[in-house]
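Risk register update: the risk of archive-format incompatibility is retired. Evidence:
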Amino acid sequence: TDQREPPLSDFLRMDLDRASAAGDPIITSVGRWRYHVKMLDRVAIFPLHAGKLSTGKLTGRFEGRLFGNRELARESNDVVIDVREPPKEGRPLGYRLGDVGRFKLSAEVEPRSTTVGETVAVRVRVTGRGQLPSQLDLPRRTGIEWLEPEKREELSVQNGKIGGWRSLGYAVRFREQGEVPLCSIELSYWDPERRHYETASVELGNVL
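Archived output:
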């Protein structure tokens, strides 16, 4: 009759799969007791800082003919996760804490010619697995203005790991004429499987 999510105050939460209320439960045994079992929710959580972080408890209230006229209150266990930072040794300049996984960058720039005061579209796509970054360090130079990006994403879980893609679409306005290099975008990240830092990059080319 009522379900309250764990607070997850120290985590970034991403919904993955919420079970349908009409879905059929399975039956399993624990000791001499038999239970109906059903997944209520599945989420990915990413720690926001280091330390011993608590998820908090999921609580719910249930009713049924076996309970009579009363509701039955239940709560989950509280999970404590020990979170550590990636090593500081060898950390690249510009690494943003939380960029952990394995990623690739690709980009499209359209059109390749414009007039002063107009914009071109730069769409950067990050693919891989892990916590996909929500912002990138952009090349800065005089005469170019990067506007706030439009974000799209598609995420899923495969073999217990979250992955997919996230695109950031920028409108770039030019204040000066001539052939202007957009330079490159780089993303430094910690690869927890290889246990060292990597840097993905993509060249954006020039706009006339």
